Amino acid sequence: xxxxxxxxxxxxxxxxxxxxxxxxxxxxxxLSILYLFSFLVYLGYGFSGFLYLYSPSSDPVTFLNxxxxxxxxxxxxxxxxxxxxxxxxxxxxxxxxxxxxxxVLYILFLSQFNYFxxxxxxxxxxxxxxxxxxxxxxxxxxxxxxxxxIIFFSVGYFSLLIRNLIGISYSYIIIPILLFGGLYxxxxxxxxxxxxxxxxxxxxxxxxxxxxLILLILILAGLLICNFILLKKGFYGIYxxxxxLLNYSFRPASHYFRENDLFxxxxxxxxxxxxxxxxxxxxxxxxxxxIMFYRILPYDGNLYVIFILFILISGMxxxxxxxxxxxxxxxxFDFILSTKFDIxxxxxxxxxxxxxxxxILFTVYFPVIKPVxxxxxxxxxxxxxxxxxxxxxxxxxxxxxxxxxxPNRSILFNYQGLNSFQVIGVLLVLLxxxxxxxxLLLRLNLTHSxxxxxxxxxxxxxxxxxxxxxxxxxxxxxxxxxxEGYRK
Amino acid sequence: MIKAENLLKKFGNTIAVDIPxxxxxxxxxxxxxGNNGAGKTTFLRLMxxxxxxxxxxxxxxxxxxxxxxxxxxxxxxxxxxxxxxxxLTPKExxxxxxxxxxxxxxxxxxxxxxxxxxxxxxISETSKYIRQLSSGEKHKVGVIxxxxxxxxxxxxxxxxxxxxxxxxxxxxxxxxxxxxDKNKTLILSSHNLNHISDICxxxxxxxxxxxxxxxxxxxxxxxxxxxxxxxQTNNQ
Lengths: 488, 236
Prior knowledge:
The complex is a heterodimer. Chain A is an all-alpha fold.
């Protein structure tokens, strides 16, 4: 019977709507998947050669093993974001004479069967055979290869565990945050970096440390058992609609009325971001750029470029989302305008969310900014500027957004809602502080110039109420035009 | 309660709404009927300030709707899916409405309980987002969302659309019991003359943006309305 379930899963994959395209498109898609997979195999096979072109002095084995945990972290994030609820696929089999334990085992197997994991394997297997095997002994290889595989599997099952726990309550999202936060703090205060840990793991494996391998196996077994128990319990929750693993929604109902007004709107904003595909895609882009900028810094080039970089980094979250402000809401703008929906509170809620993320980014970037000359002061000025004026300028310009956006459409090749005001907005937001700094630097030194910018920002913060009023009035004047656009 | 004065709305050269004068009094249950494209939805949108009239104005309690937002405190509206926040579950959507209308927890649960037979627990307790619901279910969520603040004025566009026969009967009862002789105002548009004649105290007939009849609901007036549609059908 279980073989039938497996057959059905294959059919379900092949008959997926993604494949429901014209023949030529289907062929193109299959070819591109095959191309990507072959590329990964090729990359794994010729890794040493590719690395030599990029960095001739690097040893390929050391290079990759120093980044083993980074790969694991990326795999974790991608999987948590993308894993579909596996129980959903098996709903039709629950009443059939198949043992639930078998179904759970099947889910555990299926959960690792995703593009990211397969992609990683396609790279890692030829890499290990081509690069590790010739350099190290066969025994070392047989410690290293399964060891790394166990780590990847553990990451996969950890992702599944977190995904399942999030299904029960969103508060469990704190686990990966604490984990990554802990690692970050270790790097910051104990000088134990991700790289060091990665190196340590590899060293243990290559040195044929049997206890370490057993420890890895035990971790994997622990994760499997936890997932097994959770999934088995999850079957009973499916039709109860309470604490079900299918229920991937926030459950604030019991606390709802205790919260203050602003929180209601903050929650709406968080739900908007978390529950729509395009907004989630934006989050991944922000993550990508955050990592990219992290790599670029500390940058000791042109002062203005540094300031622009700092403004972009601290405002990355806000700028990305504010650009499409009111277009995100285009699907329920009628509701906003014809009920007691408090627009100012909603905007304040958005502003609060974006500002909190700016502060988080500020904290994360703290160690790489410290070495830049007057870096901290500049970064603080950038943060203050974004929170006091930058976001307001963009929110004001967003009142001109009159294009409908479906936030639940994929981010790929999606140009819905793009308009010239967004470009003007970002240029303006960057030009205002740069020009101010330029003019101030004609007379003053950098510290004094930044202090004056800070002062101006603080004044803007003090008159925040007036700025909100201006934005609201503008929005009200524009509402008929915008509504017409949103209905198209 | 609600007045239209010299109201004109055009889309290009097409006149969508042209109502020189109309008054809907407190306690009226006013039904608007007309064929597709007659301008019913546009008129309802003008009522809640979602469209800017080219001329004239709508007054709610003698205040122009574009001038003050006070009307939002006592008006509930559901016109189409643009009133639904689709990434929320129905429960979250109702809770959100309860919150913005400052409903007490008990008051909210009591009211929602009152609509349970219309909404049924499959919708109110579902973990699906509104966007994942069927058209009928979405419609129910929208109607209840508008009813939840217990508004003095309720504006509904085609509230019986997409509903199964049982739900239509239940909604009919809800509207009748909630608005008839309650000194509240209900404004609804519908294609279904039976519902209009069951619920409304006044029936208005709209054609090409104009209110061509505005009658008290009785047997003669309804047969006049029916005759109008029969005549329209025969002339097509």
